[in-house]
Amino acid sequence: MFDVDWAVPVSVELHGPGDHDLIFCTRDAADCLLHEWPTEDGENFHEALRMFMLVLDGRAEPEEARMAFVAAANEAGLLVIE
């Protein structure tokens, strides 16, 4: 369930203007938040991590993790293309 591709990948500008990372699944999103995110704070940041764990446990759908990831990116002020 954790590796299931999202129906629509998310492009997020993590490393400066024009440098987009394409996130395809919950595992990619978790790795991104844990290792590349510009901040380790924020309500949506923590909610996304919680949602990733729920997906891993089979108690939430990958699309819910995708929505939480987009909310965290918006909270961090990152450019997101859905």
Summarize the structure.
The protein is an alpha+beta fold. It has three helices and three strands. The mean pLDDT is 93.
Describe this structure in words.
With 82 residues, the protein is of the alpha+beta class. The chain has one domain. It contains three helices and three strands, in the order ββαααβ. A hairpin with a 6-residue loop joins strand 1 and strand 2.
End-to-end Cα distance: 21 Å
Tally of individual helices = 3
Query: From N to C, what is the helix and strand string?
Result: EEHHHE
Which percent range describes the beta-strand content? 15-25%
Unreliable residue runs: none
Coarse structural class: alpha+beta
Count the domains.
1
* Overall radius of gyration: 11 Å
| Overall residue-averaged pLDDT value | 93
Q: How are the strands of the biggest sheet laid out side by side? A: 2-1-3
Shape: globular
Largest β-sheet summary: 3 strands, antiparallel
Helix content: 40-55%
Number of strands: 3
Secondary-structure blueprint of this entry?
Blueprint: E1 5-13, E2 20-25, H1 26-35, H2 43-56, H3 62-75, E3 80-81
Antiparallel strand pairs: 1-2, 1-3
Helix pairs in contact: 1-2, 2-3
Features of this protein?
alpha+beta, globular, 82 residues
